Amino acid sequence: MKVSEIFMDTNTCVFAVTNSDNGDELEWSIEPTDFVLLPEEEDSYIVKAKQIYRDRSVDCFLAIMTPERIAETVIKLNKDGNVVAESIYEQENSVIPAVASDCFGDYTLFYPKENPQVGIDILKNGLDKAINKNVVAEDLRYILRDENRFEESIEAFKISEEAGPSSEYIYLELSRLYKRLGQTTKQLEYEQKFKEHGGIE
């Protein structure tokens, strides 16, 4: 099927791009997959997404290249109901994937400033489905940290720690969170873990 027909499929979360030779994204060929999260392997996908407003969200799609999670094109319906492809950089409101990711990347992909809770809910839902729970947990924890939800952020960091942290800096982040909560013993414990795993501030 073509990208221009994507809104006809109401069940698929992730489409694989099978031919992107055409300069018009709407003419790209895509195939439905059974992925429920953005997969880790190197490829191009179009995933269900949401354009976020303060009081609502609008369904759309986002073209993403993995494993870097590069997102540049939004597929959506315009005010006349026609399917259009637009640059993500031209959007007045955030566009985020409606599914979590099994590959690492910039957590801000899931962080809509208009309503951060939407991204948080998507990631929490994705935790149950994730193969790499540490990936989803890391996206989640940074958003919670930036939203000053420190105790929830620690819980997400702990999931990542148990599943295998991406780097020693996870321990440093945990020590800083415990410091903000005034829990000095835990702060020092994680500062030590950071150093034991090769961390240098």
Describe the protein:
33% of the residues lie in helices and 23% in strands. The chain has helices spanning 116-129, 133-146, 150-163, 169-180, 184-196; strands spanning 14-19, 29-32, 43-52, 57-66, 70-77, 83-87, 95-97. The model has no long low-confidence stretch (mean pLDDT 91). Helix 2 (133-146) runs antiparallel to helix 3 (150-163). It has a domain at 1-100. It has 201 residues and is of the alpha+beta class. The protein is built from five helices and seven strands; from the N terminus they run E-E-E-E-E-E-E-H-H-H-H-H. Strands 1, 2, 3, 4, 5, 6 and 7 form a seven-stranded antiparallel sheet that branches.
Point out poorly predicted stretches.
Answer: none
How many DSSP H or I helices?
5
Would you count the extended β strands for me?
Answer: 7
Strand percentage: 15-25%
**Fraction in helix:** 25-40%
User: What profile does the largest beta sheet have?
Assistant: 7 strands, antiparallel
Keywords:
single chain; 201 residues; alpha+beta; 7-stranded antiparallel sheet; 5 helices
Chart the SSEs and their pairings.
Blueprint: E1 14-19, E2 29-32, E3 43-52, E4 57-66, E5 70-77, E6 83-87, E7 95-97, H1 116-129, H2 133-146, H3 150-163, H4 169-180, H5 184-196
Antiparallel strand pairs: 1-2, 1-3, 3-4, 3-7, 4-5, 5-6
Brief sketch in words of this structure:
The protein has helices at 116-129, 133-146, 150-163, 169-180, 184-196; strands at residues 14-19, 29-32, 43-52, 57-66, 70-77, 83-87, 95-97. The chain is of the alpha+beta class and 201 residues long. Helix 2 (133-146) packs antiparallel against helix 3, helix 3 runs antiparallel to helix 4 and helix 4 (169-180) packs antiparallel against helix 5.
